[in-house]
Amino acid sequence: MNDKLWKTLQYSSITTMIIIAVFGLTAFPRERTPDGGWQYYFPNAFLQYTMAVVVLCLLFLFMFSTFVRREEEVSIGVAKKSLTYIVGIGIWYLFIKWVI
Question: Phi, psi at residue 30, to the nearest 5°?
């Protein structure tokens, strides 16, 4: 197994996700809401969905490379574990959104 390759993929995917998040927070217009938060306005829904899909793909790549480095093998089990974690993160997000 080429650990240097997976380490590079892991770091580059998380760095790219951070850059996308910073770009989204700084480039798009926003205004203050009455409760003290911020309301962001995306130029169109296509851009918003595209950014979400790109971030999900990068999140899968990050999780997959993390588990490949931990298990020291590339297998279907590692891919299933990565998808399970991503689905778990999504369910946790929906639960928190439902509670708040």
Answer: -145, 160
The mean predicted confidence, pLDDT, of the chain is 90
**C-alpha angle 66-71-77 in degrees, rounded to nearest 5:** 90
User: In which domain, by residue range, is 37 found?
Assistant: 3-99
Find out whether 60 and 16 touch, Cβ atoms under 8 Å.
no
Q: Whose structure tokens read 């971030």?
A: 55
User: What is the arithmetic mean of pLDDT over 11-23?
Assistant: 93
Q: How far is CA 21 from CA 15, 24, 25, 74, 99, in A?
A: 10, 5, 6, 29, 24
Q: Where are the alpha helices (DSSP H) in 1-100?
A: 3-27, 45-71, 76-99
How many structural domains comprise the chain?
A: 1
